[in-house]
Write a structure and sequence with these properties.
The protein is α+β, with helices and mostly antiparallel strands. It has one domain. It is 49% helix and 13% strand. Strands 1-2-3 form a three-stranded mixed β-sheet, with helices on one face. The longest helix is centred in the last third of the chain and has 17 residues. The N and C termini lie far apart (42 Å).
């Protein structure tokens, strides 16, 4: 399940499908959970591995990434968000 232009989550608020759907709709990009729940420490290990030459490059991230529970933006919600933003721009002066 590759996500080319999206948001990958691993822990925290991402455990909530409701919260992830809100983020998915607001940013209008797909979101996925990573199967591995090690979070930042895993990323740190990859950085160290590339820096020390243990890994050739960051392609290892793609090889090790496993995604689950992909969410797509809701067209209805995005339309509502756009209408609200239009209203704010039209009637509210900051």
């Amino acid at each position: 399940m590759p996500v080319l232009l999206g948001i990958d989550y691993s822990t925290g608020g991402a455990k909530s499908n409701v919260w992830r759907q809100i983020i998915t709709d607001v940013f209008n990009v797909p979101t996925v959970l990573t199967k591995r729940k090690t979070g930042a420490s895993f990323g740190d290990a990859i950085l160290a591995g590339v820096a020390t030459g243990y890994f050739k490059d960051y392609f290892i991230c793609k090889q090790l990434a496993e995604y689950v529970n992909m969410l797509e933006p809701s067209e209805k919600t995005i339309k509502n968000i756009c209408n609200i933003l239009h209203f704010i721009k039209k009637y509210i002066t900051i």
